[in-house]
Amino acid sequence: MSDRVEALFSGTVAPGVYRTSLRTAAASLVRAAESHGWRAFHLDGRDLVTKTEFIATGGRAMRFPSYSGNNWDAFEESLSDLSWAPAQGYLLVFDGVRGFAQAQPDEFAVAVEILRESVRRWHARGTPLVVLLRGAGRAAGGVSWL
Predict the structure, then answer these.
(1) pTM value?
(2) Helix and strand numbers, DSSP H then E, in the chain
């Protein structure tokens, strides 16, 4: 596994939301996370263009409970809970970001802010959350590169 991937789990990379050009296969990232006691979730967003699609796909990827609603408040609440997936840390790999970010930039901005707030909440509990946005390009201009 590359040094960049290992840095995600060693604490070298601060918890946060990042754009990345890291090309490691999602399945390899999941295995690496699990080998460090983390849980990893892969959100394939290549076909996403709406808020509803993002929330539904994200909920399935992170195995949100069936009672989780289809709105931003429910998404944020479930992401801040994850009691059904206890771990030493969490990695969310969101592939194919550009379609959603370009089609609905305001909704994408809300999603990023929810992800950032979840990172802060998990960090306050002593549990890292790292979110990797792959394939975002300029569409995620306000997000730092890793």
Answers:
(1) 0.94
(2) 6, 4
